[in-house]
Amino acid sequence: MMTLLNAPESFSDQLQDKIQYAETGIVSKVLLKLPHCQYTLFCLAAGTDIAEHTSTQNAVVQVLEGNGILTLEGEDITLEPGVFVFMSANAPHALKASENLAFLLTLSEPR
Fold this sequence. Notes:
By secondary structure, this protein is mainly β.
């Protein structure tokens, strides 16, 4: 897997082929980094928790496989394949992977 610091030309890739899990914890892979946004594949092993935190950037989660719970501003959102979540900058959020969970995280600068 190659991390691109910019996209000099168009390209495509198969995300399912990039998914891999550690026995515990998180495997993350930056797929593409542009001046104002970044695309990262996150693979969380079952039982992994990400404590509540915020980001100075807007974020989009697109679930590829697995299940989990995202707590966004105090509300629980079930994560399963096909779910799309937008989180505005500085929104408090936390995550728990009920089973192995893979998602694409897109970070972008707020306007």
